[in-house]
Amino acid sequence: MSATMTQTPGQEKKETTVKITVKSWDAMGKQFLKPMEVDAKRVEKDGKVLFSVSVKQAIGRGQPRTGSEITDADGTIYVVKKGSSNRDGEYSAFVEKKAVEKKP
User: Fold this and answer.
1) Which residue, of 28, 32, 80, 103, is most buried by count of CB atoms within 10 Å of its CB?
2) Does residue 93 form part of some domain?
């Protein structure tokens, strides 16, 4: 195996199919739209998470645009930092865990 083909530990990609709830952010109206449940692929690599959803399924309020919130089955909330569509009809949402608000 050549040096370019060697995979460094920690670079393994973990992909699972999950059901998520998307609260799409409407930047023009400055509000969240009604939450929608969609099927997605959760991809983890190097400590980063992205959710990939079918564009057909995520039309309208199910498409997690920048600023939207995604809640997974465990109740963890993620904020979409960036999104992109590909030719295969998939929309990828690059996310970060939402900071937990501390109560006084």
Assistant:
1) 80
2) yes
Number of domains, the chain: 1
What's the 3-state SS for 13-70? CEEEEEEEEEECEECCCCEECCCEEEEEEEEEECCEEEEEEECCCCCHHHCCCCCCEE
Provide the pLDDT for residue 61.
Answer: 65
User: Would you state the pLDDT for residue 6?
Assistant: 44
Mean pLDDT of 6-10: 50
Q: Which two tokens stand for residue 86?
A: 């590909």
Q: How many Å apart are CA 78 and CA 97, to the nearest integer?
A: 4
Residue 81 lies in a domain: yes
Domain that holds residue 81: 14-97
- As a whole number of angstroms, the distance between CA 77 and CA 75 comes to 6
pLDDT value at residue 60: 67
pTM beyond 0.85: the answer is: no
